[in-house]
Amino acid sequence: MPDLLLIIRLAGRRVALPASEVEGVVELDGITPTPRAAVHVAGLSALRSRVLTVIDGLAALELGRSPAEGLLEAIVVPSGGHTYALLVDSVEDVVETARPPVPIRAPVGPGWDRIAIGMVEAEDDLLLLVDPHLIIAGPAAQAA
Questions:
Q1: Greatest CA span in the chain, whole angstroms?
Q2: Torsion of CA 84, 89, 93, 98, to 10 degrees
Q3: What is the pLDDT of residues 30-89, one digit of tens each?
Q4: At 115, is the secondary structure helix, strand, or coil?
Q5: Which of 9, 19, 115, 143 could form a disulfide with 4 if both were Cys (CB 3.0 to 4.6 A apart)?
Q6: Contacts with 115 (C-beta within 8 Å, 6 or more apart), sequence order
Q7: How far apart are CA 124 and CA 108, in angstroms?
Q8: HSE of 63 in the Cβ direction (CA atoms, 13 Å)?
Q9: Which of 131, 6, 12 minimizes the C-alpha distance to 63?
Q10: What is d(CA 36, CA 18) in angstroms, rounded to the nearest whole number?
Q11: Closest to 89 measured CA to CA, from 75, 102, 101, 110
């Protein structure tokens, strides 16, 4: 049975996530900063009467900071009993893959090595498969 993948751009790179891990795709209009939050937490935002913790995908990879103004594209991911909005560059599509992921046989780069769980073929392209829960955990999770 084919698995569904959500194809996104994160830090300029086209990657895939298991679609089953994603609740939705949204545009956020405003983030309220949260003092003393982890470095990869951009702040809080409201979505249909729910408060979401907003995770900065770039900061989670230790590759800079996402812009904090205007409409921001995010994926909504439930994780550990909470719901998070993960800021991404863009969301492309949901596609099927008929083959299971294959192991990564070489380093894929700082930040990426922590969140990558394999490589997957989708739409005649070989993409890095990433775990959104590891992005949410942030760079401190690597040290733990």
A1: 45
A2: -80
A3: 899 999 999 999 999 988 888 999 999 999 999 999 877 778 999 999 999 999 999 999
A4: helix
A5: 19
A6: 60, 61, 130, 131, 134, 135
A7: 20
A8: 19
A9: 12
A10: 31
A11: 75
Domain ranges, ordered by start, for the chain: 3-143
In the structure encoding, which two tokens stand for residue 38, read together? 């982890």
Tokens of 82: 């909470």
Residue 77 identity: V
Phi, psi of 99 (to 5 degrees): -110, 145
> What gap in Å lies between CA 133 and CA 2, rounded to an integer?
22
Query: pTM for the full model?
Result: 0.91
Q: Retrieve residue 65's tokens.
A: 């900071």
Residue with tokens 């299971």: 100
Estimate to the nearest angstrom the gap between the alpha carbon of 115 and the chain centroid. Answer: 9
